[in-house]
Amino acid sequence: MNEFFPEVSRIEFEGKDSINPLAFKYYEADRVVGGKTMEEHLRFAVAYWHTFKSQGGDPFGSGTFQRAWNVGSPMEVAEKTMAANFEFVTKLGVPYYCFHDRDMAPEGETFQESISNLETMVAKAKEHQAETGVKLLWGTANLFSHPRFMHGAASNPDPHVVACCALQVRHAIAATKELGGENYVFWGGREGYETLLNTDMKREREQIAAFFHMCVDYARRIGFTGQFLIEPKPKEPTKHQYDFDAATVLSFLREFDLLDHFKLNVEANHATLAGHDFAHDLAVAADAGKLGSIDANTGDLLLGWDTDQFPTNVYDVTRAMLVVLGAGGLGSGGLNFDAKVRRGSIDGVDLFHAHIGGMDVFARGLLAAQAIIDDGRIDEFRAQRYAGWDTGFGKSMLDGNETLESLEAKALELGEPKRVSGRQEMLENILGNLI
Description:
The chain is α/β, with parallel strands linked by helices.
């Protein structure tokens, strides 16, 4: 497998003193951290769409990339792209990849041709997986690019469009099952609205819920045992997204009796666009027992759109990994690099530089997070800060044994509370020193 990246051999770990740009400085797959290897903790995956289908365009300019695999008829391009994907993933040494159906197989002139294209490419992907040992972390359906979805997919006011959505998702779930995918993701890129003047929001949310119940039923009937994931996103392209952030998605799942069937695929860039930081949305999902997987990227806080950059901030990633480790890991999920190289990074080798950097940053974050846990000072401080709820009337309140009157009596007995410092700066220093 040396057709598309002949200048690159398998990426190896060389340590932090290495100056080889095509080597890992911190990511050592077999290194044991907290009882598991780095590979088991991080479960890296390459995003088929950004890595191989991105043309280098942005909202203000056309594509700049000239990829060797992007030549020929649509199906010839699909086959070359798939070969490039497995060559890249194998040389990078990650265990997983992810795909959208329309990135793996082109849209046909008819629905039946689209189905046939996907089935053909799934068969080829299965051969590549068997040859390389690379596995599928998750599959999904692109329900946002085609003009038919301009007013939404499952939330569309036209049932005909929703039927088209069902057709596409059914085959995408079946493809994911055929390839041994460990998860299936729903990303509602068009599930939202611009104005209530033409939108019945209550009806549209009910439509999405009904559609998700059909997906759960279909997965059960075909024996797909992978985890269903929903990916929150606050904006782009619609002004009001129904999956705005982790809390919104969890509320939706509870409201429509879907909580037992879904977890969340949290993306860093989406969290910041929602006005949160990455660790916050991870913690919201984890506290509900619903942290399923991660889209590992970052945004530029000086820009107002989903820039999907590779992660470089060790502090942010360390705080994210503290949440992941505290939740017991990602289960069947992983860290998918839903990120793309910049418009001016036009060479194929730039794809390797980007992924190496992102993997090293998460390896550093993992090491730092484990060091913070082993050190124990931050956990101890937090436990002491809330110690009053473990005994006495604090615990009694949580147990349901207090009233407003009984708490009033306690306040009158104890008088004004003593003010206690939150020690934020000290804790930030501990975190920084252990990084």
